[in-house]
Amino acid sequence: MVDELNQQILKCLQENARLSNAEIGRRIGISSPAVAERIRKMEDLGIITGFKAVISPFEMGYQFKAIITLRAFMGKLKPFLEKVKTWNEVINCYRITGNENIVMEVVLYNQQHLEQFIDQIISYGESKTQIVLSQVVRYNPILK
Questions:
Q1: Given its phi and psi angles, is residue 109 left (phi above 0), alpha (psi -120 to 50 degrees) or beta?
Q2: DSSP state, 5?
Q3: Which of 20, 32, 68, 144 is at 20 to 30 A from 95, Cα to Cα?
Q4: How far apart, in whole angstroms, are the C-alpha atoms of residue 35 and residue 24?
């Protein structure tokens, strides 16, 4: 169970994972060692699964973001699930219910790159592509 102090620690980490334990402790009113111990316990329990840098695809040269759904051909879902892990363009991939089996969020350099990417996935199934025009929510933390 995540108590109120752990929720406050998690909120601080979601806002800025680079905050020091001392700064988190100052904000929520406990000592730095207490923060460190609580973070360690939450890591051990699998509540905190890691820390990472959030990279801007646009600043890395990607001009397109697209949502692509895939309805896998018979016998192609498992091979696709292995192959999709190797594509750098895929930033999120979910196996879903409904008419399609897969939904992917992908970033691409340009239209030609999009066409080349679609050419790779069509051997696995029928795809539908939507170009993302804008991002409405950039980051929506679990704890508010």
A1: alpha
A2: H
A3: 144
A4: 7
SS3 91: strand
Stated pTM of the model: 0.77
Tokens (6 digits) for 114: 């999009």
Taking the C-alpha atoms of 133, 110, 76 and 104 in order, what is their torsion angle to the nearest 10 degrees?
-30
Of 7-21, 42-56, 88-102, 128-142, the one with minimum mean pLDDT is: 128-142
Q: Per residue in 100-122, pLDDT tens? A: 999 999 999 999 999 999 999 99
SS3 140: coil
Q: Is the pLDDT of residue 142 over 90?
A: no
Q: Give the residue from 131, 120, 128 showing the smallest Cα distance to 66.
A: 131
Residue 138 pLDDT exceeds 80 = no
Helix and strand counts by DSSP (H, E) for the chain: 5, 4
